[in-house]
Amino acid sequence: MRWLAPLAALTLLLAACGSSKKSSSTTTSSSGGSVTTAGSSGGSANKATGSPITIGFINQEGDPTASYEDWHSGADAAIGYINNELGGIGGHPIAYKFCATKAAAGGDTCANQMVDAKVPMVMGGYVFNTGPMLPLLKSAAIPYISGAGLISADFASDGNHYFLHGGSLGTFLGVVSYLKSSGIKSLAILHSDAPPGVLAAQVVQKGLANVKTQLVPIPATSADMTPIVSSISGQPDAVLLLQGAPLCGSVMKTIADLGYKAQVIVTPGCVAQDVVKVAGKGAEGVMYLSSTTPFSATTDPDIKLLNDSLAKYTSKQPSARAVEGFALVLAIRDIITKAGGASATAATINTTVKNSKNVKQRLAGPYSCNPPPLAKTPAVCNDSVEIWQLKGGASSPVAGGKIFHGADAAG
Predict the structure, then answer these.
(1) N or C: which end of the chain has fewer CB within 10 A?
(2) What is the pLDDT of residues 16-54, one digit of tens each?
(3) Over 50: is that where the pLDDT of 77 sits?
(4) Lowest-confidence range among 83-97, 242-256, 335-349?
(5) What span, in angstroms and rounded, lies between the C-alpha atoms of 385 and 401?
(6) DSSP letter (8 states) at residue 318
(7) Average pLDDT across the chain, whole number
(8) Using one digit for the tens of pLDDT, what is the confidence trace for 131-166?
(9) pLDDT score at 299
(10) Are 312 and 409 contacting, i.e. CB atoms less than 8 angstroms apart?
(11) Which is nearest to 168 in space by CA: 208, 137, 196?
(12) How far is it, in rounded angstroms, from Cα 128 to Cα 124?
């Protein structure tokens, strides 16, 4: 598992690509958290009217270093859609007991709230503080289901937590897998000079032993990207940008302004609307890898559904993390249904996920936890990513829509 520590470092780089604010209708519960039933207004094509099925929900919010309210908005939109238009789960609406955690604290507090509430499972958004949280949930036999693991503790499976999207693991290894298949001979890696960026660049370089690579660090204090981008030697076949927002917008703009013709590949956060606006013409034609359908793929029917649900049930704007929250809630509905619906327990939910094989899900590739795609990280049930290209403000799949798998690069 020599690649696990650098992978976790890159995860932090990918996740720390901005934050957003959210408002929702919540009621305070007796355990100090909140219980939310989203979607109390809007369409009523098949509204759930039974007693609610309440699950736990933990997400990192209100943290000045990294806050992910947009993930929460995506979850709210999905619950609104499910409860008002799909009949919930067998006529029972989904509700969640919510607890906000911070990057450096709060994981144990939130876990204890979930244990006290006796929820049958916990849904995880973007959570950096899972280290103290996961053992507490395991001791109570409450399964934890999330989209993407974010720290090393997430990848060390204990048979009680699972990640259903390719996420950071798929993105990291997918970059290597794609570049290996692309036939490039030279690559410039522009990366954050913080430890996560340095480690990520070194691991990508090591994974591409037959490609001539050059590493170009980007200091966090940089105001002018011209001298940094100008230090790229020659005209490489591709430029891989391992730098989060907002700096990646300025870097993309400078690459275009200086006349580099290389194919630019960025992390998903660098195609956010505000970043693309900064990049200008530098964002046109950039490629990026994503484990979920990008929100800019506006012709995709599930993205249209997300956008409609966000407008109807949250009034929030689409984003990459909103897609992840929306997708995971839809997958969890299917899991709970298979586990017994309103009669589902922590044990039946855990068994359902643990025994999953090639389960299709909307807005993401199929997941399998039995066996997992990467034997070294059995908590990660999905290693698939797709490469997309941004043109004219919209994204479309490239490489014939080929799915790249982290297992191909992990060895």
Answers:
(1) C
(2) 554 444 433 333 232 334 455 544 444 458 999 999 999
(3) yes
(4) 242-256
(5) 10
(6) P
(7) 86
(8) 999 999 999 999 999 998 877 788 776 799 999 986
(9) 87
(10) no
(11) 196
(12) 10
Reply yes or no on whether the pLDDT at 170 is more than 80.
no
| Separation of alpha carbons 208 and 88, rounded Å | 47
Tell me how far apart the alpha carbons of residues 336 and 54 are, in angstroms, rounded to a whole number.
Answer: 11
The CA distance from 109 to 97, in Å, is 13
Residue type at position 280: G
Helical residues (DSSP H) of 183-300, grouped into ranges = 195-207, 226-230, 247-257, 273-279
Amino acid 246: pLDDT: 75
For 24, 334, 379, the CA distances from 114, given in Å and listed in that order, are 20, 21, 21
What distance in Å separates the CA atoms of residue 38 and residue 54, rounded to the nearest whole number?
Answer: 12
Q: At what angle do helices 320-338 and 346-354 cross, to 10 degrees?
A: 110
Contact 37, 52 (CB under 8 A): yes
User: Can you say how many angstroms the Cα of residue 383 is from the centroid of all Cα atoms in its chain?
Assistant: 12
Residue indicated by tokens 């034997």: 375
The whole-angstrom distance between residue 317's C-alpha and the CA centroid of its chain comes to 17
If phi over 0 gives left and psi between -120 and 50 gives alpha, with beta otherwise, what is residue 142? beta
Burial of 105 (0-12, 13-18, 19+ CB in 10 A): exposed
Q: Which residues have CB under 8 Å from 348's CB, separation 6+?
A: 339, 340
pLDDT of residue 137: 97
Domains plus CATH for the chain? 4-166+299-380 (3.40.50.2300), 169-290+388-410 (3.40.50.2300)
| Pair type for strands 186-192 and 212-218 | parallel
Coil vs helix vs strand at 265? strand
What is the DSSP pairing of strand 94-101 with strand 34-36? antiparallel
Higher pLDDT, 319 or 20: 319
Distance in angstroms (rounded) separating the CA atoms of residues 264 and 255:
9
Q: Residue length, the chain? A: 411
User: Residue 212 is encoded by which pair of tokens?
Assistant: 């001539």
Question: Do residues 323 and 298 touch, judged by C-beta distance below 8 A?
Answer: no
Instruction: Identify the residue whose tokens are 């798998």.
Output: 405
Amino acid at 203: V
Neighbours of 5 (CB within 10 A): 11
